[in-house]
Design a protein that fits this description.
The chain is α/β, with parallel strands linked by helices. The strands form seven sheets. It has an eight-stranded parallel β-barrel with strand order 3-4-7-10-11-12-13-14, surrounded by seven helices. A five-stranded parallel sheet has the order 17-16-15-18-29, covered by helices on one side. Helix 2 crosses helix 3, helix 3 packs parallel to helix 6 and helix 14 (about 390-400) runs parallel beside helix 22 (about 630-645). The two termini are about 45 Å apart.
């Protein structure tokens, strides 16, 4: 992987490799400065081998934006001093620090109309509050923000920041001025493309004047929004990129999408690896020579290497992958690909933000680097883990790595549990890679794995454990429908994980994300598929991040699937199923029914072990049907608590 780890120089700054931690909003201090938790989170990624580290964007003025609804701020010496602490620590590990300077979020600021003065190029609706209009910035107010950019740039340089980046992408404030979609002004900042670029030009010039001619400055820009009426490559995207190519930026940080098309900006499990590369490829063909920084599910090392080798890009940024595994660079450089914790692109880091800011489904330590550490075991314990799904595998490997004597019992003949189904569709390569990683780590940890072992109270007592961790999953709910036990009825798990054969005509009962994934996979195989769901519309009520829903809806819209919502299945016969809608009864001929009607936890074993002389921890679906997030975090916390009990 030589190209990934080559140096690259911009002005007076040399990066030790071509790998960057992408900017993401995480755990800033109450006033928008870099908090100790945020510093620890970023330094961990520098320690892991990334050559360039970005925190979240730094807004240059708090006149319109507030820390409770934005990312970082750089407006005063206090902000700068904490930024200096971050820069110093990042530099200790040979990495460089880049920060984005932003005039603000504008129409996409999450603040409420009661607490926030939303500003933009024009009086357009805000994204989060569609009935609330933004206030159009006056020329004087634009000049104030430009002046603030120069002051922030001087503070950043003095603090030891290595690279500054103009934050002009994704529908944020500068992009709102650039875009005809949002800029309806009739003064010198609106109308022609030259006028719409005036704010970003003045913003950049103020930064350049503050830091001098040799200091590296980049720009993050979106050549295509993929939004109806928004910018496309052919409609000003390439043209703007060619203009930026002449301004003297050290590199162009390319992006795709905006808040309305969030899964383009932050790809989901339903988006292809390298989903943003078409933009860089097109701009290269258009003759743009400024180096490119690209992102978008480029966490598979051979693909990332090829992107650099081909000249498509010069730096690879990893966002969610750096959350999942801060040590991706060092592991890849050392050839330890089995040890890479591959991001599943589940975007729970976004979905859980209201509960645990910055959390990662498969790395419980993300944003808790200061406090959530488990030291080696002080006393070696005999631990039994029941269940070989993601929670069981993760927990068994973690316990063994801490020095415990660990045995895992799996009642089937294979590891993976429900992840075998979740990773089965062709488009779920991210989950398959994560499962393969878990299996590899389990065996490398030294934990013993015993298959076809059904756990009960007697067998566990006979084993004589010091602690038991129940990760035995959940069972499919069988709705009370006549014919539900027919041989034509199979579970979504059996369809996907066990590759059960089905006939040409298939009805999927349940329109959640499992049912939709099963239906899409069947459609891809050429089956005639119908989804039946009591609720509706599909996907909207699923516990998924917004961009996951957008990605799944996009796949559903491309498929040829018949959908019945607000519909009850009342009978299953050898020839058809009977559906009851609000208006009438409809028979649908089918060869098979696939159950995706949900799961329920079985608490029987946990209840049987109450009062035992050894501690018992239940995790994941054994507590409540959920996702990989709950299984992995539950397992980590169980070992954390066990360590404290020793």
């Amino acid at each position: 992987m030589s190209k990934l780890f080559e140096e690259i120089t911009f002005g007076n700054v040399t990066l030790k490799n071509r790998l960057a931690v992408a900017p993401m909003g995480t755990i800033h201090a109450m006033d928008g400065g870099v908090s100790p938790e945020q510093r620890a989170y970023l330094v961990e990624r520098a320690k892991g081998g990334f050559g360039l580290v970005y925190p979240s964007a730094h807004t240059v003025s708090d006149k319109y934006e507030h820390p409770h609804s934005s990312g970082n701020f750089l407006c005063n010496e206090s902000h700068a001093e904490r930024l200096r602490l971050l820069a110093d620590e990042v530099h200790q590990y040979g990495a460089k620090l880049a920060i984005q300077l932003s005039p603000g979020y504008g129409r996409v600021n999450v603040g409420t109309p009661e607490t926030t003065t939303h500003v933009s190029a024009s009086p357009i609706p805000t994204f989060w509050h569609r009935n609330h209009l933004c206030k159009a910035l006056t020329v004087e107010e634009i000049h104030e923000l430009v002046e603030a950019a120069g002051k922030a740039a001087a503070l950043a340089k003095e603090a030891g920041v290595d690279i500054l980046e103009v934050h002009a992408y994704g529908g944020y404030l500068l992009d709102q001025f650039i875009s005809k979609q949002w800029n309806h002004r009739e003064d010198e900042y609106g109308g022609s493309l030259e006028n719409r670029l005036r704010f970003i030009r003045e913003f950049y010039d103020a930064i350049r004047a503050a830091v001098g001619p040799d200091y590296p400055i980049s720009v993050k820009f979106t050549p295509q929004h993929s939004l109806h009426g928004g910018r496309t490559l052919d409609n000003e995207g390439v043209e703007i990129a060619k203009i930026l190519d002449t301004w003297g930026f050290s590199y162009l940080h390319l992006d795709h999408g905006c808040y309305e098309t969030w899964n383009k900006a932050i790809p989901s499990a339903y988006d292809e690896p390298g989903s943003q590369l078409f933009i860089a490829e097109r701009l290269r063909k258009e003759g743009i020579t400024t180096p490119f920084l690209v992102q978008g599910k480029l966490n598979y090392a051979p693909q990332a290497e090829q992107v650099l080798e081909s000249g498509t890009a010069d730096i690879i940024a990893m966002g969610h992958q750096s959350l999942a595994d801060p040590y991706w660079p060092s592991k890849v450089q050392e050839g330890r690909l089995d040890d890479v914790v591959y991001c599943t692109a589940c975007n729970e880091c976004l979905n859980s933000a209201v509960r645990i800011p910055g959390s990662c489904a498969i790395n419980p330590r993300t944003c808790k680097e200061r406090t959530y550490n488990i030291p080696p075991a002080r006393r070696k314990m005999k631990i039994l883990v029941v269940g070989g799904g993601p929670g069981g595998m993760y927990t068994a490997a973690l316990a063994a790595q801490q020095g415990h004597d660990v045995t895992l019992w799996e009642k089937r003949g294979t590891l993976g549990g429900l992840v075998n189904a979740a990773g089965a569709p062709d488009f779920k390569v991210d989950m398959r890679r994560y499962k393969d990683h878990l299996v590899a780590q389990l065996y490398k940890s030294g934990a013993r794995v015993e298959f076809m072992r059904e756990a009960d109270e007697a067998s566990i007592d006979a084993f004589g454990p010091d602690a038991v961790i129940l990760a035995c999953g959940a069972e499919t709910v069988l709705p009370p429908i006549p014919g539900i036990n027919s041989s034509k009825v199979i579970t979504a798990y059996d369809l996907l994980a066990n590759h059960r054969k089905v006939g040409q005509r298939v009805v999927v009962l349940g329109g959640g994300h499992v049912g939709c994934e099963a239906a899409i996979e069947l459609d891809n195989r050429g089956h005639r598929v119908t989804i039946v769901d009591l609720g509706g519309p599909l996907i909207d009520s699923a516990d998924m991040s917004a961009n996951m829903k957008l990605g799944l809806k996009e796949r559903m819209n491309k498929a040829h699937i018949q959908v019945f919502t607000h519909t009850k299945m009342t009978d299953i016969t050898p020839e058809y199923v009977m559906l009851e809608t609000r208006y009438d009864e409809i028979p649908i001929e089918c060869d098979n029914v696939v159950l995706a009607s949900g799961f329920r936890a079985n608490h029987g074993l946990q209840e049987a072990l109450e009062g035992k002389p050894y501690p018992v921890f239940a995790i994941g679906d054994c507590v409540k049907p959920g996702k990989v997030y709950e299984a992995v975090h539950g397992g980590h916390h169980a070992i954390y608590k066990l360590n404290q009990m020793e």
